[in-house]
Amino acid sequence: MSHELRIADLHATVAGFEILRGVSVTVRSGEVHAIMGPNGCGKSTLTHTLMGRADYEVTAGSATIDGNELLGRPTWERAQAGLFVAMQYPVEIPGVRVTDLVGAALQAGGAPTDDLDTRIAAEADRLAVRDEFLERGVNDEFSGGEKKRVETLQLALLQPHFAILDEIDSGLDVDALRDVARRVRAMTTEHDLGVLAITHYSRLLEELRPDFIHVMMAGKIVASGGPELADRLEADGYEGLAGELGIDELVLRRPEAADPFGDPTIATNPFADPLG
Ligand code: ADP
Ligand code: MG
């Protein structure tokens, strides 16, 4: 069965500052979409907002899977609706092995776990994850590359409808990048996984071969297209593309906190000449 993740006109604020300013993207089963954008344009905010992190407040818009609203629901319900997030900075969970974590998640969703050890071993093999990392707590003192391989292993075992990969390429060496990207790409054909891959480098995209590219600047998608858009970015850079599109705000800058002493129109220098 084919599924659809539809993000429509999503607005979100953090601590009263609007970061997402109307994001719309629709991903269908089997498709790979990339969202590219400079650091600080709101990519991780989109990830956190979709998965329901508490400090991000949705002020408008919707995010649905097959028409069912995800926003406003607890994170575990979003996961059970078929959404998976590989975080840019995966949390370390000492004392909880990946088997425990994946087993609990599968059980909670009513999926069978009888042959889980065999399935984990097979995935570990495909992703070149050594046994040692299956025995330790999830991400507990793992290197950047090991964390992302194990995130991908969890993704492959949980088989969600959609995966959001937030800079899965950050901290990866070329071998890990290739293994992770190939495994994700294979899931799009083996399980019809829909992917939203967030990155600011085109290196990941060479392996992942996205069908659609979206460029995000200052909390909005400013351009969408096919793979050629990534080539254009590679050639012109974000600044160049922004210039071509007539955009002057690439990233979001939180305004300075209200501070009367920060206002240059108010004289604060006691030595200043009040009449000068
Ligand atoms: P990206 O992932 O594209 O680098 P982020 O979504 O992490 O960008 O950040 C966008 C902007 O929102 C930045 O200015 C960042 O400082 C701010 N921001 C993001 N999350 C928070 C938060 N939890 N608290 C305060 N500011 C935040
Ligand atoms: Mg980020």
Detailed description of the structure:
The protein is α/β, with parallel strands linked by helices and 276 residues long. Helices cover 36% and strands 27% of the residues. The protein contains nine helices and twelve strands. It has helices at 43-51, 75-80, 98-108, 116-126, 131-135, 144-158, 174-190, 203-208, 228-245, and strands at residues 4-14, 17-28, 32-36, 56-65, 68-69, 83-86, 93-97, 137-138, 162-166, 194-199, 212-217, 220-225. Strands 6-9-10-3-11-12 form a six-stranded mixed beta sheet, sandwiched between helices. A four-stranded antiparallel beta sheet has the order 2-1-4-5. Strand 11 and strand 12 (220-225) form a beta hairpin. Helix 3 runs parallel beside helix 6, helix 4 (116-126) packs across helix 6 (144-158) and helix 6 runs parallel beside helix 7 (174-190). The chain is globular, with a radius of gyration of 21 Å. The model is unreliable at 262-270 (pLDDT under 50). Adenosine-5'-diphosphate binds next to helix 1. Magnesium ion is lined by residues 43-44, 88, 167.
